[in-house]
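Supplementary notes for students who missed Thursday's class. We covered one full example, reproduced here. Read the sequence, then the structure, then the short commentary at the end.
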Amino acid sequence: MKLEKVLEKLEELLRGWGLNFNDWVLTSEYTWGLQSYKLRQRRGRLDIYVDRKKWLWKTEPMDISCFPPPKSRKFFQLKEFMERTKFSPHFLPAPIKLKYNPIEELMKNSKIYILPNGRRIRIHNIYKDFEDRIKTLISERGDISTWKRETLERWLKNFFKIERIARRKGDRRMLRICKIAIERCRFIRKKIRPKKEEIPLKISQIKGEVAFKGTAEGKAKVIFDQSELTKLEKGEILVAQMTTPEFILAIERAKAIVTDDGGIGCHAAIISREFKIPCIIGTKIATKVLKDGDLIEVDVEKGVVKILQKAK
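Structure (token representation):
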């Protein structure tokens, strides 16, 4: 489905939830193409800032994602939207962490985009989007360990592509932004040293951080990409590097969640809390140690994943 048709359906969905023109802003890479900087995008990912005060359901102060409660009518409407359009909305409550990205600032730095059906939406101004990314790059100077190399490489690749387009367009402001951003990305990349995880040959349990309490026993299903979500069968334990909005379509089948990455406000922590299934995050090595079919026990009381039997 073409992007503008998807955005028409998104606007209709959110309007039906009571979120109007001034309650949300579309951000992320898809908005660049709407502002004449078209790049190849991450498939189907729509990042949407929503006014935390207008969001219909409770969110915790540190939550970085939000979505309708499972089994609610609006949750099934969201699932239907995702299945029909093949796009996955990622709702980001603003302000985030109480002080970042206040909705008023987002509105001030947004642009009005007119859809083919005449409806209006707000999209994040590409110049402000990139200037915010530079601020993020600079603010992380003291703690570059928080950066993932793959994220940094993706940002760098996009900045180079945007720079080439800006040069053809004669866009001096964008060229200045890209120059600073590329320098910062290169600086951080030099400081990052890939750490080799030393995994014992014989390991019986994996430690992590408790995201939602409970215990569960079942077979592991290791998911590296959203295209593999159809492999997850009911009653299996989802093992992933991290979860993203696309996982919502399959999460109802999972008995528990185990991830390599994430903090207490991450997507996996939030989604496990909403679905009330045991979850352990931040194990660092779960996807490296566990294989499909391994019989495991998620003991959230102790914050460990026990390997009961390896798959043959």
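Commentary. The mean pLDDT is 86. The two ends are 42 Å apart (CA to CA). If anything here is unclear, bring it to office hours.
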